[in-house]
Design brief:
Largest sheet: 4 strands, antiparallel
Helix content: under 10%
Number of helices: 1
Shape: globular
Distance between the termini: 22 Å
Order of helices and strands: EHEEEEE
Structural class: mainly beta
Strand order of the largest sheet: 1-4-3-6
């Protein structure tokens, strides 16, 4: 699993909520999936970026938005 975190270090605990998440390095172009979610008891949205392609995202945190970006993955907030 290849994960790059664009968030505070304490988000490491919250990333386990993203399972099952499988990441493969078969893509030639740089595609990425950015998962924005809000862990329980937190007032901040954390940004977890995984290199594409993404498979089996069922069962992931409900309060989550997903978007696909081309090129380098960037956090969607300036303060992270």
């Amino acid at each position: 699993m290849l994960l790059a975190l664009c968030s505070p270090s304490d988000v490491h605990k919250a990333t386990f909520r993203l399972k099952p998440l499988t990441v493969s390095k078969k893509s030639d172009s740089v595609r990425c999936e950015s998962f924005v979610f809000n862990p329980a008891g937190s007032s901040d949205d954390y940004h977890v970026i995984a290199l594409a392609p993404i498979a089996n995202i069922s069962g992931v945190v409900a309060r989550m938005m997903m978007y696909v970006c081309k090129g380098e993955c960037q956090p969607s907030r300036d303060d992270v």
